[in-house]
Amino acid sequence: xxxxxxxxxxxxxVLSLTAPGFASAIxxxxxxxxxxxxxxxxxxxxxxxxxxxxxxxxxxxxxxPDIRFGSLPNGMRYAIKRQAIPLGQAAxxxxxxxxxxxETDAQQGLAHFLEHMAFAGSKAVPxxxxxxxxERHGLAFGADTNASxxxxxxxxxxxxxxxxEDTVDTSLKLLREAxxxxxxxxxxxxxxRGVVLSEExxxxxxxxxxxxxxxGFELPGQLMPNRLPIGKVDVLQKAPASLIADFYHHYYxxxxxxxxxxxxxxxxxxxxxxRARFGDWQAVGPAGPEPALGKVADxxxxxxxxxxxxxxxxxxxxxxxPPDLRADRLAKRRADFIQELGFAVLNRRMSAMAxxxxxxxxxxxxxxxxxxxxADVTMVxxxxxxxxxxxxxxxxxxxxxxxxxxxVRQDELDREIAEERASAQAALSGAATRRPAQIxxxxxxxxxxxxxxxxxxxxxxxLEATVKGLKAETVSAALKAxxxxxxxxxxxxxxxxxxxxEQALLAEYASTQKVAVAAPAAPHAAxxxxxxxxxxxxxxxxxxxxxxNTALVRFExxxxxxxxxxxxxxxxxxxxxxxxxxxxxxxxxxQSLAWFGNAFIExxxxxxxxxxxxxxxxxxxxxxxxxxxxxxxxxxGSTRTADLPTQMQVLTAYVxxxxxxxxxxxxxxxxxxxxxxxxxxxxxxxxxxxLSGLLHAGDRRFTFxxxxxxxxxxxxxxxxxxAPHLTNDPIEVVIxxxxxxxxxxxxxARTFGSLPARRxxxxxxxxxxxxxxxxxxxxxxxxxxxGRDDQAIGYMxxxxxxxxxxxxxxxxxxxxxxxxxxxxxxxLRLTQGVTYSPSVSYAHSLTWTGWGxxxxxxxxPPAKLDGFFRDMDKIATDLRTKDVTPDELERAKKxxxxxxxxxxxxxxxxxxxxxxxxxDPRRLDFIRHIIPGxxxxxxxxxxxxxxxxxxxxxxxxxxxxxxxxxxxxxxxxAQP
Length: 976
Fold this sequence. Notes:
By secondary structure, the chain is an alpha+beta fold. The chain is built from 33 helices and 24 strands. Strands 12-13-14-18-15-17-16 form a 7-stranded mixed sheet, with helices on both faces. It has a 6-stranded mixed sheet with strand order 1-2-6-3-5-4, with helices on both faces. Strands 21-22-20-23-19-24 form a 6-stranded mixed sheet, sandwiched between helices.
């Protein structure tokens, strides 16, 4: 189904560029789907479907014919689709039309609390057994067994590694238990409080505070700002089990439930199972009321300034309108799509401004969004430096008014149509091999807005019908209409005080509104200049690895090509290009500039910049990513089969003729000025900043750049670290996916095979492959953060070894890590209830001699850190001295083996695992060994691994605490 995501993409671009290259490290909170809320005022109601009714019954939009839509007499609906690739896998989703909006004042947070209780005991499943039952069937807790609560829904998710009768029947039984049979015992509720409170602590970051404040400003007097899914701390601490049960019976009802099943099974058989399992479900007691969502307030231009240390400067201009509650029909879809095309043009213009030589902002985007059936909003969002907000506001305001006044040009519209068409064609080509979880999530995603689920074929047909003869004037009128409503409202979050406050913001907006805007300039002509690279390369050698269906090719210029044809995903081809040795080629005593890697791609190519490249290749599907890996400088991309020649031309051009434009470097450097402030705002941010450098004993190739490093970095330094290797070093190309060996060889011969000869591969010096590990210590290393005073992280790690020292021992260490993870969850989450996310991680390097680790971490209040280290010491001692039980061993090994088996039917797995295999054939042997090697691990092996690894004097300890905590004096301070 076409679900145009330009709105979220635009906002994501703005958010991610506030800390370039470190979006995952900062850990921005999951921003909920923006549904709107209400207070006392009446509001238009979203037309509800009758029990058991699907939206296609009232729509002229044709539903996907391959999905079996149905309902039970009790009103529960189901959607079933057979997806036979990959073999033997399935995804189950049970969605309830029940979220935080349905809570009373006294229940704030209990919809989410109830989600936790679904794993804490039911009439047929003892407390804490649900997760263990699923683990015995190969479902890992978190990865395959999960749930989420939002404003308007709760969704339970099971991803099945097998579709045998036992696994399917067990999974449906457990979902049925969650639907109506939960015990919600008071003692279980009391134990779970600490887990839910841990989740509340972990989610509360400066960015989340900004989100809450902005939401309240946009929706005054409405329910949504007062019904955030995480709820109120005092409610989570004190609410009795009876209040949770009250919500359960009011809203977990068959008429509010939809079961989605997608996977490798017979739909008729699955339907029969659903009817047998859920057919006797009857609601208990009266139904709960629908929330009153209120009306959009009458407002003129207003401003809200929030000073929030630890965040980047962000500014939004927002127009708010009553919600569009029309049913999903073709006319509505056409209107929405035409308007989205207009936003795409506007966002393209803003992207060009951000890439210019003197950009007025870091990133900006505009979009329209529905907020939970309470309002529609149009938002222009911009990220800038704290002292640059005036210029940023003026730029986005004037660009928005330029689009409204002069509209879009036909050439701009045609470009966006070409990209949308290419995307829809690619979706259709790959439809038969989409993953069950992807399809199931798409179906679930349609339910809240009562959208008809359509097929990729119907999506393409709709697109072609909509854009046929579409004129710029039509799109311009639609875009203009979007910038209307109450407001505009100006919201700005700044890490520091702004002179003049909100009045300064209003005055600046009024001033820029007086500036006349001119029509946009027409683009200059551009062509793609990298279609050829010289004489077609010749193959010097070809080898076949028959058991892995892989070809190893070497060209006369030294370029090596590894090709694995697959049918895992139709019309998908993944590419990885490895040049040189990556981090091994960089000095150990100088800060790596790898964090500037995005500037390499944004710098474009010498003969054409990124803006023109995207324009001339608009009808193609391609990507270009760059990173500095442990064993190579890596360029990568993903494309469809027909566009593989273009994809390879793009990657070859980046190796042979990069642009190195200074404006791209400056843009990332500017955005990086506040990254330390953002990371210091949470315990997780500090840990992610410091951990890699610590675990590599301070080696500067792994440390996070300091503020001074960021400020003083020069483009010339980045070039000096990377350019010589791109010019001279050996090249390895790995291609995996829907392509033949012959086709891949021909395309590479015309691209990388045409480049000048490369120097012969040589191993990096042993000194460059040597990396240390921090010494063990009884006292933890201490870091502090500037976030909440009840947020803290404990971390404990033991050194292991590299993979090649003993591959089987590495697998035994992995299983040890899985057992440790089970024990950590059992003790800290299930028994003590002190944390939401205890975790264990492990690694055995393929690159660094002797380097590997096994680690455990936890988020807890500072007062409980000592308890975490005591618990870990006890777990380590027990693992060294006592045998693991057969059940533990099964629950540790089976999810891991099933995960590996599922990974091995993905192109991503083979792209990663085949990388470097020509230079080091041991990688091929390990691919063959990893599953049988894991299967053969015994309880004795785990015990021996624990005795080898979990030595008290080798344990490295780390704490991240709030600034000013008295306990900090007892810890070992971090070294500068």
